[in-house]
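Quiz preparation item.
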């Protein structure tokens, strides 16, 4: 199946507090396996699922971590379990959310939206006024999440 992606932007970046108290911390080198497992779990059965195995997920994590902006990127924990990751990268001078991922059993509880709100707070504190995202067309969960936060679709990505 050929997938297409679209680009979304939010400008100016608006900040609202998260709906609940969330525990976050910076990404550590020791998170590699945990993040790979989180990604496999979260993407399984979604339109982005290409049947990746653990090694594929590790490679994806390595790519994301190599590019991430540490000062704006974090994981969300609940009882020391990593339940979400929210990473920021910079491409062509624009800050992008890449990726936002929530554990399957914690989806649809407001965690993704809260993680993005906290991420936007970090960006705005650093003077960033615009944030982008690229989303696979048909990823209805992600489209709903970003549109609901005020993002507008700019057009096809790439
Ligand atoms: C996309 C994702 C991060 C959303 O996280 P989440 O914590 O479940 O989202 P939230 O509970 O904060 O939902 C916020 C809003 O997003 C939208 N949304 C979330 N899941 C949705 C779904 N399955 N279908 C439609 N809309 C959805 C809704 O508008 C929702 O608001 P509502 O619950 O008040 O209706 C999560 O589904 C995920 O990890 N998916 C796999 C990884 C992925 O695709 N990441 C995005 C890469 S760009």
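Solution:
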């Amino acid at each position: 199946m050929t997938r297409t992606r679209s680009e979304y932007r939010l400008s100016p970046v608006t900040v609202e507090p998260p709906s609940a108290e969330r525990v976050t911390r910076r990404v550590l080198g020791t998170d590699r396996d945990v993040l790979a497992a989180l990604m496999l779990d979260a993407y399984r059965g979604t339109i982005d699922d290409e049947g990746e195995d653990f090694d594929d997920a590790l490679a994806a994590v390595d790519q994301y971590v190599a590019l991430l902006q540490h000062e704006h990127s974090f994981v969300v924990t609940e009882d020391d379990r990593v339940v979400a990751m929210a990473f920021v990268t910079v491409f062509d001078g624009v800050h992008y959310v890449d990726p936002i991922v929530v554990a399957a059993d914690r989806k649809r509880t407001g965690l993704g939206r809260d993680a993005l709100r906290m991420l936007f707070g970090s960006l705005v504190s650093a003077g960033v006024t615009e944030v982008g995202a690229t989303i696979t067309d048909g990823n209805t969960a992600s489209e709903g999440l970003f549109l609901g936060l005020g993002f507008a679709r700019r057009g096809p990505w790439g």
